[in-house]
Amino acid sequence: MDKLTLLKVLFGHDGFREGQEPLADALLSGRDVLGVMPTGAGKSVCYQLPAMLMRGVTVVVSPLISLMKDQVAALVHSGVPAAYINSSQSFPEQQEVIEQVRIGACKIVYVAPERLMAPEFLRLAKEIELPLVAVDEAHCVSQWGQDFRPSYLQIADFIEALPKRPVVGAFTATATDQVKADIEKLLLLKDPLRVTTGFDRPNLFFEVVHTKQKDAWLLDFLTKHPGQSGIVYCSTRKAVEDVCGRLRAQGVPAARYHAGLEDEERRQSQEDFEYDRVRVMVATNAFGMGIDKSNVSFVVHYNMPKNVESYYQEAGRAGRDGQPAHCALLFSPKDVQTAKFLILNAMENEALSDDEREAVRARDLKRLSQMTEYCKTFGCLRAYLLRYFGQDAPNRCENCGSCSGEVEHWDITVEAQKILSGVARVERKYKNSMGSSVIVDMLRGSKRQKMKEWGLDELSTYGIMQDVPRAVLLAYVDFLTLEGYLEQGGEYSVLRLGARAKGVLFHGEKVEYARLRPEQMEKLAPARNADVQRDEAAGGLFETLRGVRAKLAAQENVPAYIVFSNATLADMALKQPTNLAEFQLVSGVGEVKAKKYGPAFLEAVSAWLEGAG
């Protein structure tokens, strides 16, 4: 069977996406590859297709148990004999998989990097014909990557231990030039074909929301996006607990996930999310790499991540099915301090020397600065992200918060001078200064008893901004902090003068305030989900097909997206097939799934057409 026929039969696609064919062809010809392709671009097809055309068994190195299970389930439902070996299995279950691999009843086996050099698996790998080793999430091999995993360094040892070197394919969604160089070096790739298809995800709408009312914003967002499934990322375990608890109290079906929970609860939370028993997963970054759930319609970052790589990878878990999805980052200046604290207090990597640890820390602080710049920019957010990864981008994308909103500017030099003077006098009176709330109260001439107790009512700046609304004054303080005129730090997040303060106070420097017009904020939300719009245009057929999918998934005890993705259902609703031949023309419907699921969906389409007539 040729590759195009196999692509249609197994995966239901009539042609390759960008980058897939040259990568697959290179592997089939025996050449190593390095593929950098955005999430949802179809990296797995690049090695799964060659695996089916090669003699023997392909080993796929994958970092997470959940990812292995998802990918193997999808392959098996498409008619590909695949399996995995990991710690979630009992010893007899592992032995059964090993025997299936040994007798050639399995074409693709997923393995965690930690198991590669285990004596029994290494013995198996030496016995079988092993033409291809595919490394998923390959950036994990680099100490300069955001997800460095020392176990990935064993991959090269495993390959060298084999009696015959297999062709090696390395794949990742996010990698800077330095990380790509590390992947080639540490995985011992030989003259690899390098394909970078670009990092753009046109279906994702990006926005940064500057707010201290994060809970109110989140609840409002969920209310405006009913029925959609998504992830809310928090920077700490405590934040996960708090946010999840508040969502549940408001009646939102939510699960929690972080490293401090028992394994069973984490497993149950992930399963509930994948099977759509809950619509929101509230999690730290412990949840996520390689999550294969295709119908994630939004990713909200409740806190700012520590670097752009992590943000783009986590945000990229939305819209894997190609449908429009929303990626929002809720930002406040305190997020910067939290991220800095996490960097400075991270666990030491024993594999690194003292100099290397210091270099990693300096790199992480630089990345934090770049992440903060993303949150502060009023330029195109998509352009910022793409240029960060070295890709050219136009100045406007028309599909992000900055491009969809209207920015207004005005001179707040006088206001800034008053605020900075107030902070300077508080610093002079109290060595450790005070928090922003106290300083704002002082500037507004608050009558609170604390003002008298602390002697703040005696300062010359007491009450000099009494006519400025508190919310506006707090917004000014946030802006001045973001721009470096003020600094917020210490255990109690006190305000101090920043590096740029002197220019305003003593050298006549002007301060221009910029923000999205409040009336533009409502425009930031993208149009209603494309599935809903298609469903209304088709008179509800899409929703009918979702019901059929849900029933089939329940019968087989698999997540709904394993049966068919939302994108496939949308195409089905558009094409309205009435026989098996027409059904196989739907994007994402392969031969195996057509025979297995076709009758149920065709019956539903026919019934809907009769009702519509």
Beta-strand share of residues:
5-15%
Q: Which residues sit in consecutive blocks of at least 5 with pLDDT less than 50?
A: 518-532
Tell me the major beta sheet: 7 strands, parallel
How many whole angstroms does the radius of gyration measure? 27 Å
CATH architecture of the largest domain: 3-Layer(aba) Sandwich
Q: Would you identify the CATH H-level superfamily of the largest domain?
A: P-loop containing nucleotide triphosphate hydrolases
Please report the first level of CATH classification, the CATH class of the largest domain: Alpha Beta
**General form:** globular
Mean pLDDT: 87
**Helix content range of the residues, please?**
40-55%
C-alpha end-to-end distance? 42 Å
Strand order of the largest sheet: 3-4-2-5-6-1-7
CATH topology call of the largest domain: Rossmann fold
Output the number of helix runs.
Answer: 27
